[in-house]
């Protein structure tokens, strides 16, 4: 009986087909988020979200027009644009770069392929044979990734080039509940990626190692997986997992503040309505005016909280998605699967780990409505000719209205304790009557970046904060004054620290010979000397300045600053080691 001729097997026949849209019961990890179908050639974007290769190719390019770029910057931008295309991720809206070769140049998500194949196994109805197309599949070749009926399985075994392939029963695969498919080489479909080329940073098969990577150092995948896997584990456990927890905590604070804001606004509105019912038409008009003002405050602060919430949610989604992908890759992926996605995973995790600092706890959800008060006895002017009372006080700090007082913010003296005062004000410019704001003051040398000045901020609990510092080095400094993680108006300020005035330690004399009574060992800050073994200066001798001078530095100006490094001290062998008294 003749055997049917085997067709050339495709690497993933179930993935290359056009499946119908899946129901909600299908494993979501096997479904593309764009086309809502089972993955077809799933590719991993730099943000670690997976989509079909065709779906990625249909994304519209995203570009931002340059603003004031120089010629060199524009040329660099053009070269970068020619090398890749930037698109927006359909999942997280992140800007990601597609290689010049298109979606085919992205890393393949082999874990998604496993999910797709598992979904086809557990789906209703028998599987058809991928070779003859007539029989019911009973087995599957792990190497060729094809489903085989009983007759084609025997023929597959007889073929010389496929006799050694691993063939497993379909029912056994279904019972496992999870698959460990071999990752095959795209250039040599019959070869599994068992080696890792270190110069190219790619997993390769035996044939690739013997040909394309012949002169490269290729090692077995199981020898290098611990090193690369530990790098991913370290980023996840040491840096990103704690950040994920902080983001979740900050998001929870914002959500709680939103609820508190609404409760406080509702309570204040009830107080206003109860107070206004005792008045006639003028009071009723005043009531409506107060409610309008309250609504403005609510919208203003709700928008601020909404913006904080959206920023935290986006950061949380980025970190959570990347952490979940990395953890699933490490826990579910084989050595080759981890190495295949290692590059894009490390780049994404490193980018998230090195991204800007997390929000300070004191700057998160700074306004939950607790600063909104109704003051019923405060005069509110006249409405329709009638005097009315009752105003809304939103006692919250307005960073743009905060000011600093004192000369210590502009000038100081080296080695002396200096200070200035920060005054927190509301939107009307009035000083707050309470403290408790998150104030950060940083003083950094403008030329020596590693030269900073330690500062102390004291809260007076009346809206004022006393800032003290002691500069140890003269020069020009930048003073950063931030309230609630935002610069106040005018910050950073320029601080000039002057050098401390040095008093003379010696005497103002005519010469060391006269002032010392003829002592030969008397030294002077000027370079003058006398013959006969004298170490100091004398009238008319070489080096004498010809006028009275200071013995410590040689300066001829009586009311001057002592400069030990003056030209006199620089050329004098004795310097100013000894002061001569008259």
If you had to describe this structure to a student in words, what would you say it looks like?
The protein has 582 residues and is α+β, with helices and mostly antiparallel strands. It folds into four domains: 13-176, Zinc/RING finger domain, C3HC4 (zinc finger) (Herpes Virus-1, 2-Layer Sandwich), CATH 3.30.40.10; 222-363, no CATH class; 399-498, Immunoglobulin-like (Sandwich), CATH 2.60.40.10; 504-582, no CATH class. The chain has helices at residues 13-16, 53-57, 71-83, 110-122, 150-158, 170-176, 206-210, 221-276, 281-332, 335-353, 512-515, 567-571, and strands at 42-44, 50-52, 84-88, 95-99, 107-108, 139-141, 146-148, 167-169, 195-197, 202-204, 218-220, 372-383, 386-394, 403-405, 411-413, 418-423, 439-445, 452-453, 455-459, 464-469, 475-483, 486-487, 493-498, 508-509, 549-550. Strands 15, 17, 18, 21, 22 and 23 form a six-stranded mixed beta sheet that branches. Mean pLDDT is 79; it is low at 1-24, 360-365 and 565-582.
């Amino acid at each position: 009986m003749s055997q049917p001729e085997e067709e050339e097997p495709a690497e993933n026949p179930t993935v290359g087909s056009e499946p119908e849209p899946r129901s909600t019961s299908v494993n979501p990890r096997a479904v593309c988020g764009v086309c809502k179908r089972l993955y077809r050639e799933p590719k991993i974007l730099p943000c670690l979200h997976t989509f079909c290769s065709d779906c990625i190719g249909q994304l519209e390019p995203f570009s931002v027009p340059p603003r004031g770029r120089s010629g060199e910057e524009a040329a660099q931008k053009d070269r970068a644009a020619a090398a890749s295309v930037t698109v927006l991720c359909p999942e997280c809206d992140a800007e990601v770069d597609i290689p010049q070769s298109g979606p085919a140049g992205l890393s393949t998500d082999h874990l998604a392929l496993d999910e797709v194949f598992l979904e086809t196994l557990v789906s209703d109805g028998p599987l058809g044979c991928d070779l003859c197309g007539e029989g019911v599949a009973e087995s599957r070749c792990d190497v060729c990734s094809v489903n085989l009926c009983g007759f084609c399985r025997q023929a597959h075994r007889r073929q010389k080039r496929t006799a050694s392939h691993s063939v497993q029963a379909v029912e056994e695969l279904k019972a496992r509940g999870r698959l460990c498919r071999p990752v095959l080489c795209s250039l040599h479909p019959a070869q599994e990626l068992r080696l890792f080329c270190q110069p190219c940073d790619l997993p390769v098969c035996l044939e690739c190692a013997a040909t394309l990577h012949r002169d490269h150092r290729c090692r077995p995948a199981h020898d290098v997986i611990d090193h690369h896997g530990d790098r991913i584990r370290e980023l996840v456990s040491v840096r990103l997992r704690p950040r994920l927890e902080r983001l979740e905590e900050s998001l929870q604070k914002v959500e709680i503040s939103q609820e508190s804001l609404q409760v406080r606004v509702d309570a204040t509105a009830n107080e206003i309505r109860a107070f206004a019912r005792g008045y006639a038409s003028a009071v009723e008009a005043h009531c409506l005016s107060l409610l309008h003002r309250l609504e403005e405050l609510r919208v203003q602060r709700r928008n601020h909280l909404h913006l904080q919430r959206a920023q935290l949610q986006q950061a949380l989604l980025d970190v959570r998605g990347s952490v979940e992908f990395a953890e699933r890759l490490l826990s579910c992926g084989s050595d080759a699967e981890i190495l295949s996605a290692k590059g894009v995973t490390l780049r994404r995790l490193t980018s998230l780990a090195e991204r800007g600092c997390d929000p300070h706890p004191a700057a998160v959800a700074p306004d939950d409505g607790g600063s909104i008060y109704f003051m019923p006895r405060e005069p509110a002017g006249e409405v329709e000719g009638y005097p009315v009372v009752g105003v809304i006080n939103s006692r919250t700090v307005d960073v743009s209205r905060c000011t600093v007082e004192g000369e210590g913010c502009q000038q100081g003296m080296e080695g002396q304790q200096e200070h200035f005062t920060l005054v927190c004000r509301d939107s009307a410019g009035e000083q707050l009557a309470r403290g408790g704001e998150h104030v950060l003051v940083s003083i950094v040398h403008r030329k020596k970046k590693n030269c900073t000045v330690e500062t102390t901020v004291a809260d007076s609990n009346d809206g004022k904060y006393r800032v003290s510092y002691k500069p140890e080095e003269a020069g020009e400094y930048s003073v950063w004054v931030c309230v609630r993680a935002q610069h106040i108006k005018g910050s950073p300020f320029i601080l000039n620290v002057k050098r401390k005035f040095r008093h003379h330690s010696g005497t103002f004399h005519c010469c060391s010979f006269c002032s010392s009574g003829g002592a030969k060992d008397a030294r002077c800050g000027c370079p003058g000397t006398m013959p006969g073994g004298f170490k100091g200066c004398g009238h008319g001798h070489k080096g004498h300045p010809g006028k009275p001078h200071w013995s410590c530095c040689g300066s001829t100006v009586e009311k001057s600053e002592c400069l030990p490094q003056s030209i006199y001290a620089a050329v004098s062998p004795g310097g100013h080691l000894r002061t001569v008294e008259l």
